[in-house]
Amino acid sequence: MKNADFLTGITTSGTPHLGNFVGAIRPAVKTSKDNNLTSYYFLADFHSLIKCHDPERVKKSTLEIAAAWIALGLDTDNCIFYRQSDIPEIPELTWILTCITPKGLMNRAHAYKANVDENKNTGKKDLDINISMGLFSYPILMAADILMFNAKKVPVGKDQIQHLEMTRDIAAKFNNQYKELFTYPEVVVDETSSVLAGLDGRKMSKSYNNIIPLFDTEKNLRKLIMKIKTNSQEPDEPKDYKTCTLFSIFEAFASKNEIKTMKEKYSQGIAWGTMKQELFEYINETLKESRKIYSQLISSPSDIENILKKGRDKAREYSVPFLSEIRKATGIQSLV
Ligand code: TRP
Question: Whose CA is nearest to atom 14 of ligand 1?
């Protein structure tokens, strides 16, 4: 097995939403079909334990995210599609990397800092309260995900850029300390659409509770789109598409021409209600077929399990021999 031209993962702690589709699933589906590329795509289930301690939810989310990826067209024969926890080499590499990662580097990680700030703002005396070591060192687990398969390109949302920088720092540490084994991964960020806005205009994220699920019923999809925040402009008043959440979601799905037409409708003062209806129809049409496949998959988890087992075997063709090289470089090896 070859190292990864592309690699990305989705944390399995929630229901797959439009933001996952635009940021990770859609670009992955595209590269998964390219015969000249080796792509690794995975369910980041160990990552889910950082924030989610509800076993049922972790399990359900793993099924849903796998089903979503497959329903939306991931070519699981051509790419390597696996569950992180099926690759025991990843946590082992995580420990090796943990031992060379400066603590100061982790102090600067934004996920950790955001939690410290939250504690500060809510007047907590102990600024580390409710912060686990998993959250603190999460960028190291992510570095192991990436370096385990010597990934060249990692498509992610903007909020993950810092983690890719850290991955390169950690790779350099290892390469200098032990042996040049790791390639430096490059971050791939689609500036226009990789971070989709949610119901309240902030990044669509399960942590903000502002998501639009990918495969909810038609009725619920409509209901949620009607809930998206807009300003209080009247119908016929010309509107600014640049600051509009509805437009930014539309833009992430529509073609260039459709976007152009929509911009014109904004300057002509399209009413918010009409825009919401158009957005709903557009997204519903885009997802209709996949929604059917998705519900079939959800009701046959053993089909998904088989796909993941095949993915695990392909991934381990790379990770098993590579980890033994990495171990050797550190002195962890047989005595004879
Ligand atoms: N942390 C990523 C996110 O929240 C998910 C992820 C885990 C990931 N491991 C990864 C993405 C490795 C890319 C590569 O979006």
Answer: 8
